[in-house]
Specification:
Elements: E1 2-7, H1 27-41, E2 48-52, H2 56-63, E3 69-71, H3 81-88, E4 96-101, H4 105-115, E5 128-136, E6 139-148
Parallel strand pairs: 1-4, 2-3, 2-4
Antiparallel strand pairs: 1-5, 5-6
């Protein structure tokens, strides 16, 4: 399984009565999301599923890929690593899953996958961390394949 954690790109600061979930990408955020989407489309991924937080900024980021996007409430603001793992199906899903979500949970999941325990690691806005899992000598391993930022 390939697992790609993609933090939503830069969003507008909350103004007035705009709810956090309704914040949109800035023009810079849109450009960055397009650049990262272009990079992702060039990668050798198969059977890609795109899962997104219901927050507007995450959906706008995900839609830059031009692929169908499945909204998962478990990926929303305030999600836990258990929520993400449950929604993703790691490591048993076949193919690739691109998860578009938020900090701090994406960084915590990256730490859990690589170091074995949650820690407050940061994935930059618009950034991608690409993991894969494999079995070697009857041992399941998690591999960080790439980190890409706009």
């Amino acid at each position: 399984m390939d697992l790609i954690l993609w933090r939503h790109a830069e969003a507008k600061d909350p103004e007035g009565p705009v709810a956090d979930a309704d914040r949109e990408l800035t023009s810079r955020g849109k450009r960055h999301a397009e650049k990262v989407a272009e990079w992702l489309r060039a990668q050798p991924l198969r059977d890609v599923a795109v899962l997104s937080s219901p927050a507007k900024r995450a959906l706008q980021t995900a839609h830059c890929l031009g692929l169908p996007v499945k909204v998962k409430t478990q990926l929303g603001v305030g999600a836990s690593t258990a929520d993400l793992l449950g929604a993703i199906g790691w490591p048993d899903h076949s193919g690739a899953v691109i998860v578009v979500g938020h900090q701090p949970v994406l960084g915590r999941l990256a730490a859990l996958l690589l170091a074995g325990s949650e820690a407050d690691w940061t994935i930059k806005k618009g950034g991608v961390w690409w993991f894969t899992n494999r079995v070697r000598q009857d041992e399941t391993q998690t591999v960080l394949r790439a980190v890409h930022c706009p």
